[in-house]
Design a protein that fits this description.
Region (Disordered): 1-20
Number of domains: 1
Strand order of the largest sheet: 1-2-3-4
Shape: globular
Strand content: 25-35%
Distance between the termini: 17 Å
Helix content: 25-40%
Length: 98
């Protein structure tokens, strides 16, 4: 997450640090804006996708949609890792009042 955003939730992927692939998700906030940032170690280029919105859920949906178009977590393994990261962050965000 960029330094000007406060991290609200972050996946702890991978469970095994020696795993060859890492897909992570972070949700942050700056002022009224939320940002969702997805990173995939196996994706081409920078291997990340992000989106901003006033609602963290919409930022997450936007980042997930952009990820598919950029080849980030686009295969079955990546999608499974991303689904786990999303579930982890949603659980954290459900306990917050942001």
């Amino acid at each position: 997450m960029p330094a000007d955003f406060t991290t609200l939730a972050e996946s702890r992927q991978p469970a095994d640090p020696a795993a060859p692939r890492h897909v992570s998700l972070a949700i942050g906030k700056r002022g009224p804006l939320h940002r969702a940032l997805i990173r995939d170690s196996a994706a081409p280029g920078k291997g990340e996708a992000s989106a901003m919105d006033y609602d963290w859920r919409l930022a997450l949906i936007g980042a997930r949609d952009r990820a598919g178009g950029r080849g980030v977590a686009g295969d079955a393994d990546g999608a499974a890792l991303l689904a786990a990261a999303i579930a982890e962050c949603e659980a954290v965000m459900a306990t917050r009042s942001t």
